[in-house]
Specification:
heteropentamer, A alpha/beta (about 375), B mainly alpha (about 260), C alpha/beta (about 260), D mainly alpha (about 290), A: about 375 residues, alpha/beta, 5-stranded mixed sheet, 3-stranded antiparallel sheet, C: about 260 residues, Rossmann fold, 2 domains, 6-stranded mixed sheet, 9 strands, about 35% helix, binds adenosine-5'-triphosphate, binds the ligand Cc1ncc(C[n+]2csc(CCO)c2C)c(N)n1, binds magnesium ion, transmembrane (chain B), cell membrane (chain B), NitT/TauT family transport system permease protein (chain B)
Chain lengths: ~375, ~260, ~260, ~290, ~260
């Protein structure tokens, strides 16, 4: 039934920490899907419960701003992209990136081969898709880095949830997450061939390669509470630890992770779900400094772009450097230390993604 | 004081006083309780953003207003033409009935993506059509009612003049339906604005009030978002007032 | 003969099998230039009879001729003018345009002059460019009458045209109508509820009775024509006599003053 | 008999629409008919206009390939049912608020003048701007053990859209009694409440029913938009955004939530017709 | 005294500074059980005067008393019954429930019997369970009159109650009203447009003139009371005399039959 997405609650058996369970709410930035597999796995597998946490996972709607839900006290932690949050922080919202789960960006700009768009510079004069919602900054940074005047030299098209605009040719180059929209295209029959579209039909601009990638899914915590509330600090560390355990499990058991997400109410087709989990794993693993640690260089690149990139409204994300408590590796490092001591592989050095074959409609 | 003057004053003053009081209370509440903008932005902050970003807001508003206006015109045209057909041929009315009911309850959020797929995601067409469909329903329903309510005495009169069908339509049926049509247009006007605005979510060129509102919200710029909302309120009121004035103009001699 | 009605009946189909016999076996002739009033209680079929003559409805039995043609032909030939209890003006047309309407529909030439003449006739020249909502009820009714006279018909059909007016206005309009009808030489068939009105206006008064609608009696009035019927007539004993006669015919010999159970 | 004929024509209309759809799909150009750069007649490719039978067929298949997944139609039906329940609650709120406003505006001319422009203005505020705020405010409600759920926010937003026709129609209805009737009440020396109860409310019924019809349609639309905006789970709104993510690869699936929404609207219209039947006594004048 | 009106005036604010003086300096007394008609052209303030007496509106000058109390007190004490040109029935209530309405509102005991009695009185016993839309205009008006009589008021205020009825029904209702009024001993203030009606019903006829509304003349009718006024009276010369007298008072000496330009 469609009501299956009951807030996933950690119903673990082995409450080792002792004492009463602590209620914790996590606000996602979108609906339940493989992108958030680690958290659902942590809940399902009892990792949260093991830490004495009773975690409720809340999916988002189109107009949910996770960071404001967090700031308002309606959630204890939130998942959001760094560029989406920096503006809020400058506006006075007190939050801290306590675990940078995704190390790499999953955002790309895809186009059909015949358009000949292989570099950001080729976007000049084209119809370029953009999601907005703070998902557009890497694109703008990439184009501006290539010397394109984004006000006059491209025509921007609002991109919807589906890829119809791209497939119908209304959009020359569309935004696509490696783990989602890119697959959507590959799950669609090419009317010219009668077979599925192939990766070879597409050019992909990857912002990681271009150098305008920005930090994406991170766990955010309430900065004020972190500063003053010992209990919250404690909980934060436990929450990060259990979440990372979930991600480690996801890395090692992608199929099971995909099934857990589906059981949590995602209606994405199974093949698509598995693809998503697998692609998300690639954004995390192998990890440079241990899963969740903020790499200073990546942070600085993100901040730099946020300071200097203007989008179509002519505004930059921020006008001055974020405060020092905008991120902190303190909690994640403690969590990693504990995990390492328990023998967990937090680096994933030998991570090998699986191969997912996409079928029509993502089946 | 002269009661007529008093009633005039009441009509103008009462909403103003109410509005000023409500805004003052709102401002006071936000300031005194130190409410965060993501909970409720203050009127002064919204106004500040409104005046500060007036150029952007104007551009966005013009885009949305153009789509809404075009949609309103198309919806009205189709509404009146279809109503004329339905009024002339009853089976057509009955055939259209389920479709019209369906159209009146289809949420824009469901319709818009489909229209973008049909008419192109890089064009304004989808937005215009969403507005047109939203406007069509009230215009059609009211126009049909208008065309159906020919006074028996006027019908008799036309028959006594041995007027042809077209003569009767032109001199009695159509003019008689005009006030109804304008009532429909007035109702449609604000619906058209809102619909064009929501449709921006799902495609079309990256401009307009709807997109501006969400992009401001997504970066927690709530005061700016509400400055755009203010823009949409202005457009909505403008549409309403213009159509209201038109309605008053064409019905000024009707009892 | 202007109008000849022979053995006419009209049955309206009601719900289920409840037919309504609005008219039964009506015989009536109206001569050229004659003023005939139809009077009778509500529902006796006065309007129905008028509508049959105007070809706004068709009889279920019997025959009608209007100027020796079928009512339909007479209607197509625009042989009559018609006015109803409601003025039935088109609110979006000025007074002038309302009076002009039939002339315009029939593409009559010299409309402007004719309209001025008609407005002059009913004393509304100063109101030519006003709209119906700016006129009083009496003035609206005068516009409707001017409109009915527009094409100089030889037959005027009027269904309680003064029903909605107050007594004084009504008397004034009656005087005008008598004058206009006699000046134009048109025959008039006039439906009314008012006995003094019927008597004041008519050459003959047709008294009808309901369920089914029949002609009970036709009374000649013989009080002179047109200008002869000044206001003084209303206070004349001959006038009161005719009024009493019509009253009696109306009450139809049934003991008056008795409380009857009225059904529809 | 006439009933049946109306139904038959209505059904024929739907069939005709289907024929036009398929006919145009068969004959129209895949890339639509353009005037200049603007597409004026839709594209006919499967992304834009799936075959009707594909939609029907798709509705019969399971939602996802997951084992034991329910068929799409039953999934849509239960989502529509959930949304409909929320819409009904929103509608109920709208009725109460709309009626109270109408009573206030009937009671006091000042209130009428002061409120009416703002009520009209309220309807020009886009729901999408309002939805996040409502959700935010509502989460500030923590009275005792009572926790505000998403569906309550959705209902409130639906009510925001739905109260308008009720308020406007009800004011008109409450003011509909003719002078002879209101004077009579005054001559009986009874107060406002008695007049309301005996005269104005019964007289308003005839105006209320059409207002209810508009209102419930607004509640349905408001519910779906709010579900999308707020991210409420399990209803038609969520279904629209979730299915959009496979919209390109499985285009027929995207149409089923539209069907669900229409179903909700029809159910609402039916409900109002039923209410109209119950209040038949007060609608004698309409017949 | 049932009603005493002294120096009463009523000014309605018009658009801008166009005030309408509906009544100016009205003096009138109505004795117990007296039947007084108000007649005059449209807009002369008949309804306004009635509404002042009923406390449906308040005067801008002068004083009124009803049974030696303020009109407000009289209204609250239910000292009068009232009926209008429109019957003003509640369409969702049956005939019985409509008549019962005032009794119900004032929680009078023995309602059922009283309603039966009233329906009997107006001859509608058989229609007790019908709804207003199932009745003819005349029957509706009779329901309204029964309702006005419901609480046995000593004063009846009636504003053109028979205005919408046809002549025969109207005459029958007049006869009934005369009977009912004299049986109940109630005073009646009756607004009408019809001269014969005013004469037939009244002890005194108050003739009013418009702009501003004034009393032009008060005529005594002296044709006997109640049952004395049979249907025969209508064909009596004494009746016609009074009719002519009222007509003349109404036309106010102005030469009759002249076509005046009517403005509002
Ligand atoms: N279109 C119709 N359908 C059914 N019955 C009708 C129709 N028109 C008139 N009747 C019935 O025919 C009868 C005569 O009606 P008609 O209108 O001619 O009466 P009338 O004498 O003009 O009455 P009134 O004085 O009230 O105008 C009435 O019983 C009426 O109900
Ligand atoms: N509520 C009101 N506001 C403004 N003017 C009014 C109001 N009521 C009545 N008048 C004016 O007062 C004057 C007297 O009106 P009233 O209704 O008393 O006349 P009447 O004699 O009853 O006329 P009728 O015979 O048409 O019923 C008219 O000029 C009318 O326009
Ligand atoms: C209006 C709107 N909201 C959300 C998305 C979906 N989206 C695009 S990127 C991203 C983050 C990771 O998936 C999400 C949720 C969309 N396309 N359009
Ligand atoms: Mg008639
Ligand atoms: Mg009056």
């Amino acid at each position: 039934s469609p009501t299956a997405t009951q807030p996933a609650t950690g119903s673990g058996s082995g409450t080792s920490g002792g004492g009463a369970t602590k209620k914790v709410t996590l606000q996602l930035q979108w609906v339940a899907q493989g992108q958030f597999a680690g958290y659902y796995v942590a809940a399902k597998k009892g990792y949260y419960a093991k830490e004495g946490l009773d975690v409720t996972i809340k999916p988002a709607g189109t107009d949910t701003v996770p960071i404001d839900v967090l700031a308002a006290g309606d959630a204890d932690y939130a998942i959001s992209w760094v560029p989406k949050v920096l503006g809020s922080i400058e506006g006075g919202t007190k939050v801290t990136d306590v675990a940078q789960i995704f190390e790499r960006s999953g955002t790309t700009q895809i186009s059909f081969k015949d358009k000949g768009i292989t570099t950001p510079g080729d976007l000049k004069g084209k119809k370029v898709g953009s999601w907005g919602y703070g998902n557009q900054w890497e694109l703008f940074a990439g184009m501006q880095k290539a010397g394109i005047n984004t006000d006059s030299q491209i025509s921007l098209v609002q991109q919807a949830f589906d890829m119809n605009g791209f497939l119908n040719g209304d959009i020359d180059a569309a935004q696509a997450m490696t783990y989602n929209e890119y697959a959507q295209v590959l799950e669609t029959i090419n009317p010219k061939t009668g077979k599925l579209y192939q990766p070879s039909d597409l050019n992909v601009i990857n912002w990681n390669t271009v150098g305008t990638a920005m930090l994406q899914d991170a766990i955010w915590a309430n900065a004020d509470k972190l500063a003053s509330d010992k209990d919250y600090q404690d909980t934060t560390e436990k929450f990060i630890k259990a979440s990372i355990e979930g991600w480690i499990y996801t890395r090692d058991h992608p199929q099971e992770a995909a099934d857990i997400v589906a059981a949590a109410g995602s209606t994405l087709p199974a093949g698509h779900q598995l693809w998503m989990v697998n692609e998300v794993n690639k954004l995390i693993w192998p990890s440079t400094g241990g899963i969740g640690t903020v790499q200073k260089s990546s942070w600085d690149q993100t901040v730099d772009i946020a300071l200097h990139t203007k989008d179509n409204t002519g505004k930059t994300i921020i006008t001055k450097d974020p405060p020092s408590d905008a991120y902190s590796n303190v909690y994640v490092e403690k969590a990693l230390a504990e995990l390492k001591s328990e023998g967990a592989d937090v680096m994933g050095t030998s991570f090998k993604p699986i191969t997912v074959t996409l079928k029509e409609g993502g089946k | 004081m002269n009661p007529v003057l008093r009633s005039r004053l009441r009509v103008v003053l009462a909403p103003l006083v109410f509005g000023v009081l409500a805004i003052a209370l709102w401002q006071w509440f936000v300031t005194a309780r130190n409410i965060q903008p993501y909970v409720l932005p203050s009127p002064s902050a919204i106004w500040e953003q409104f005046t500060g970003s007036i150029d952007i807001i104007r551009d966005a508003a013009i885009t949305t207003a153009k789509n809404a206006l075009l949609g309103l015109l198309i919806g009205t045209l189709f509404g009146v033409v279809c109503a004329a057909l339905a009024a002339a041929i009853r089976p057509i009315e009955q055939m259209a009935a389920p479709t019209v009911v369906a159209l009146s309850v289809i949420p824009i959020v469901a319709l818009a993506p489909v229209l973008y797929a049909m008419f192109g995601a890089a064009a304004q067409t989808g937005r215009v059509l969403v507005a047109a469909i939203a406007a069509f329903v009230p215009v059609y329903i009211n126009a049909l009612r208008g065309l159906r309510t020919v006074l028996p005495i006027h019908r008799d009169l036309m028959r006594s003049y041995a007027a042809t069908g077209w003569q009767a339509t032109r001199s009695v049926t159509l003019p008689g339906a005009v006030p109804f049509i304008f009532t429909g247009i007035r109702i449609a006007s604000s619906v058209a604005v809102i619909s064009a605005l929501i449709a921006e979510y799902f495609g079309g060129p990256l401009d307009g009030l709807g997109i501006s509102i969400t992009s401001a919200v997504s970066s927690s710029r709530y005061s700016l978002a509400w400055a755009f909302v203010l823009g949409s309120v202005v457009i909505g009121l403008l549409f309403y007032c213009v159509t209201y004035a038109l309605e008053a103009l064409v019905t000024r001699h009707r009892a | 003969m202007t109008v000849v009605v022979e053995g006419v009946s009209k049955v309206f189909p009601g719900k289920g099998s409840d037919e309504v016999t609005a008219l039964s076996d009506i015989d009536l002739t109206v001569g050229d230039g004659e003023f005939v009033s139809l009077i009778g209680p509500s529902g006796c079929g006065k309007s129905t009879l008028l509508r049959l003559i105007a070809d706004l409805d068709s009889p279920t039995g019997g025959t009608l001729t209007v100027f020796d043609k079928t009512p339909r032909q007479a209607r197509l030939d625009q042989d009559y003018g018609i006015a109803f209890q409601q003025a039935g003006l088109l609110p979006w047309r000025s007074v002038r345009a309302n009076v002009e309407l039939p002339l315009q529909l029939h593409k009559v030439a010299g409309r402007k002059e004719r309209v001025n003449e008609l407005l002059e006739m009913v004393g509304l020249s100063d109101f030519a460019d006003r709209y119906p909502d700016e006129l009083s009820g009496g003035m609206q009714q005068r516009v409707a009458i001017a409109r009915a006279f527009a094409e100089k018909p030889k037959l005027l059909l009027m269904d309680e045209p003064f029903g909605a007016l107050d007594e004084m206005t009504r008397e004034r309009m009656q005087g005008e109508l008598v004058r206009l009808a006699s000046e134009s030489g048109a025959a008039v068939i006039f439906v009314t509820h008012s006995i003094p009105e019927a008597v004041f206006l008519s050459d003959r008064v047709v008294v009808m009775s309901p369920r089914p609608g029949r002609i009970r009696e036709i009374l000649s009035v013989d009080l002179g024509r047109g200008v002869d019927r000044g206001e003084g007539l209303r206070e004349d004993t001959s006038f009161f006599e005719r009024v009493s006669a019509v009253r009696e015919a109306l009450h139809g010999g049934a003991p008056t003053g008795v409380r009857g159970v009225e059904t529809r | 008999m006439r009933r049946w004929r109306a139904w038959a024509w209505g059904a024929l209309g739907i069939v005709l629409l289907a024929v036009v759809w398929e006919g145009y799909k068969a004959l129209g150009p895949a890339d639509g008919v353009r005037i200049g750069d603007t597409i004026v007649l839709p594209r006919t490719n499967d992304l834009a206009m799936p075959h009707l039978w594909t939609m029907v067929q798709r509705a019969g298949e399971p939602v996802t390939s997951a084992p034991g997944a329910a068929p799409l139609w039953s999934y849509v039906l239960s989502a529509a049912w959930l949304s409909f329940k929320v819409a009904l609650i929103g509608w109920a709120i709208a009725l109460v608020v709309g009626m109270l406003l109408a009573l206030l505006m009937q009671r006091s001319k000042i209130a009428n003048s002061a409120l009416l422009p703002w009520i009209v203005l309220s309807q020009t505020v886009p729901l999408i701007a309002l939805a996040p705020l409502v959700k935010r405010w509502s989460s500030a409600f923590h009275i005792g053990g009572f926790a505000w759920a998403d569906w309550m926010s959705v209902a409130v937003i639906a009510a925001y859209l739905a109260f308008f026709p009720v308020a406007v129609g009800m004011v008109r209805g409450l003011n509909s009694p003719v002078a002879a009737q209101t004077d009579l009440m005054r001559s009986y020396g009874i107060g406002w409440w008695q007049t309301l109860l005996r005269l104005r409310l019964p007289a308003a019924v005839a105006y209320l029913i059409p207002a209810l019809r508009l209102s419930i349609a607004a509640a349905v639309i408001g519910t779906v938009v709010a579900e999308v905006s707020i991210g409420m789970d399990g209803g038609i709104g969520r279904m629209i955004i979730e299915f959009a993510q496979t919209g390109s690869a499985d285009p027929a699936k995207q149409w089923s939530p539209i069907g669900g929404a229409v179903l909700m609207g029809l159910a609402g219209a039916g409900l109002v017709a039923l209410i109209g039947l119950l209040l038949k006594r007060y609608r004698r004048a309409e017949a």
